[in-house]
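Backbone-to-sequence.
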């Protein structure tokens, strides 16, 4: 929804957002020194998915003109009736004695088993997770769970000129579970098919690039092959869609295979690698045989310009659309709390510190 169509009363509700990327480890404030040391030794840090969620939410709220505070612990302590929107991370749940109704997520828990008594231990009223299959996995444990994907900056992630398209395919490699199996079983056959056809390609491995590297690769590429076992939202492939780059996505389905949980703690299926998707985005395949069978049609569709990946993002995943959804969820939590008795007093920071964004 474009900002100009949104009728917002600035006195209705100001969001109280809380996000910190790093916690103190040894003494108060040491995360700042650790960050400085890492920057000196390793250079500028790569953008984390959690930080991207927070920044894109703020950008969407800015476009809509919705006001918000960031990490104002002093204010929230003085207003226990107002909703605390804790974007992440989980250590924030324990660094402050929360009395406020809490809207939690999305950069929080991997699974409710990480904190099974969360709703009893803290005044959490609603949890948001990035997509519908994640909701289905959470709700047996935490019924008050709702899907909320963050928006994509469609101005930043925009199509390049046809003259810049010098590479046929970008292979986006996010195969991290059972890689010793899938590298020879999937990744290498994908490369071999492209080489056999004389297609030029470049590769990016998840966790080993900066955002500007990815933007440059998308600007040069005519199509993308996305290799990932599952995604809670899939910001990276959605950024490709926003750039007008059609995607051929590995979507094996099946169970959630996070080795920290599967199969000894959690057995849930089906999952998805492309939880936000329709036929405009490109095509999917389940295994290597499916890749071999579907590649020719997908490439023909790219050559004929039959896909409209950016149109899908503009219809479903803009900064404004998803910031407005988040605001409405928070406002709904606030309305529900008006019928409940407000706490007598709020807490104070556990460590006595009022801190800013990590």
């Amino acid at each position: 929804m474009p900002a100009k169509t949104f009728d917002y009363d600035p006195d209705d509700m100001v969001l109280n957002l809380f996000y910190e990327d790093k916690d103190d480890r040894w003494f108060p404030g040491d995360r700042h020194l650790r960050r400085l040391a890492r920057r000196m030794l390793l250079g500028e840090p790569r953008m984390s998915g959690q930080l991207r969620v927070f920044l894109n939410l703020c950008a969407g709220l800015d476009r809509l003109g919705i006001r918000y505070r960031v990490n104002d612990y002093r204010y929230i302590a003085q207003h226990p009736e107002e909703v605390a929107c804790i974007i992440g991370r989980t250590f924030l749940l324990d660094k402050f004695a929360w009395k406020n109704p809490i809207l939690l997520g999305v950069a929080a828990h991997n699974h409710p088993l990480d904190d099974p008594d969360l709703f009893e231990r803290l005044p959490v009223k609603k949890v948001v997770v990035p997509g519908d299959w994640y909701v289905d996995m959470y709700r047996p444990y935490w019924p008050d769970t709702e899907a909320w994907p963050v928006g994509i900056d469609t101005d930043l992630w925009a199509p390049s000129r046809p003259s810049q398209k010098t590479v046929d395919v970008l292979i986006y490699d996010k195969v991290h579970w059972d890689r010793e199996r899938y590298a020879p079983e999937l990744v290498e056959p994908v490369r071999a098919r492209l080489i056999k056809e004389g297609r030029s390609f470049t590769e990016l491995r998840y966790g080993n690039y900066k955002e500007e590297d990815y933007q440059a690769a998308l600007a040069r590429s005519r199509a993308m092959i996305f290799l990932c076992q599952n995604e809670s939202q899939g910001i990276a492939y959605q950024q490709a869609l926003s750039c007008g780059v059609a995607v051929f996505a590995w979507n094996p389905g099946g169970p959630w295979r996070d080795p920290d949980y599967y199969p000894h703690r959690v057995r849930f299926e089906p999952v998805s690698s492309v939880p936000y998707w329709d036929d405009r985005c490109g095509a999917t395949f389940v295994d290597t045989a499916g890749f071999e069978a579907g590649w020719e049609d997908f490439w023909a569709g790219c050559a004929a310009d039959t896909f409209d990946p950016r149109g899908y993002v503009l219809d479903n995943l803009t900064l404004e659309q998803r910031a407005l959804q988040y605001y409405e969820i928070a406002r709904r939590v606030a309305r529900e709390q008006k019928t409940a008795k407000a706490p007598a007093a709020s807490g104070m920071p556990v460590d006595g510190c009022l801190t800013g964004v990590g």
